[in-house]
Design brief:
The protein is built from 22 helices and seven strands. With 556 residues, it is of the alpha+beta class.
Length: 556
Amino acid sequence: MNWVFKLSILKIALLLFLFTGCKQDYSTPPAQIEYYYSLPDSIVETSQILEELIGASDARIRAWASLAQSEKFILQTNFIAALPHIENAEYLFRELDDKLGLSKVMHYKAHAYWSLGANAKNVIAFSEAAIALAPPDKWSMYSGNHTIYLLDRGYYKEVLSLSDTLLPIFRKEESSGQILPSEAYAVRAVAIQGLQGDAQEVDTLINAALGQINFLNPVDRLHVYRLALYLGALSQQQLAVCVDFAQKIKSADLEAKAREQLDQIDLLGETSDQSRRALMSAYKRASRDSELLKEELVSYELERGKRASLREEKAAAFKQTTFLATSLSIIAALLAFVLIYRNQNVASQARINEQDAVLLLESYKNRIRPHFLFNQLNNVNSFLNQEKLEEAQEYVGLLSVHLRLLLESSNEKLSTISQEYDRLKNYVILQQKANNDKVEVRYSTDQESPQVRIPTGILQPLVENSFKYAGNTKFSDVYIHVSAQVIENKVNINIEDSGYGFMERAPGTGQGLRLIEERIAFYKSISPHPELWTLSADFGKRKSTVNITMPLTYTS
């Protein structure tokens, strides 16, 4: 009996050993990944090693290797290239239920999408997911990035509250050589400035941030420079260094903003004429890069949606998966029709003259800009993630109506103010359904103006700008007012909003406004009454106005 009992105990012990030995340990990355991170960057073989790890048979090694590859691209500020690797890592980590890996992938996902100008609500959601899953030694880092996303939304009080907790941690880590808190200093400085706090504290914080800037990686250095430029805190010498840094990382936007504040152009070894040309070149490159990035982002998001749909279908996913796939297919088909119509429009206008064709093409691109469709994909995804299928279905229906209206009007040079208002109302409904429900949009006309004809699509980019900036504020009574009035032999159109909140900017720098200026200039050049074509803009922090006048043309 005693021998049988001992044998039973031995069997149980053996089973426990086998069970614990087979159980996966997800408390640290795989040993192969830790070995990769231990290698110096100077070793040429690191890239080859990483490629081999990405193709490993073990799913967890592949996931961590994809994450390491995305980190390399992020440090190079190549966020588009990082997205497929982030996507692959997230899919694998979710399959493995690896919370450690998932926390890091959500951290990188928030950072990449924020850097690409994606929907702010989604970015904050990704960041909150990363913080919720973060191990103790990563919580402060992930929360530090979270303050940047909150700052971008103008949540200054929330930023300062979280900063009160984080700064003592960062200073302790700084003393042990683990971290440099310069980005945290810069974020806090902007938040205090936003709340009109102590100016001396703002100066102290931003100077502390700039004092460490040469020791930061390129991504963090880029963030600190942008915040310092927003505060106007860089000396002339620092601005020259910033221009040099922007050129090295090929950030035309940062270069343009730094050059705009640089008065001592001799620090760059340039003449006044050279400096002026360099500034214009930087702005043009920034605009071109921005448009190209939006197109790449739309393409990636469409393909990502298709891949996600296929994965879920293979796993016999729920009915909302089918709905998502259908929604993406509809939007993809509409995008294809848009491209076909755009190409037809370019071909026909080329017979008129080159300037006419370019301006009309830019106008058409502005009416259906790629980032508009990308934002709609995000909004559909957001509804589905919350299992709001009816809202998602309604939203896709509204989007289809709006895109159909734009397609139908794509070959029309002129529309009535009444027709433009109708198209605007469809666009406004989409914005309010998604995340701008606090913005009140008002329309007004006098008795004669509804039938006045104006260039097609000329109002939506201006209303879009108003949503982008006025809708970002936390103040109450947020509004956009579009009005039209006939005055003698011209019509006067006014777009007024309640202001830009945190995102104050200089007039004339918006892509939408620039395209409208080009269209006005074109019509002015061919008009028998060029003096009646005018455009003026007054951008303020609490109130912004764009005013357009043009000769009277009525419907037949």
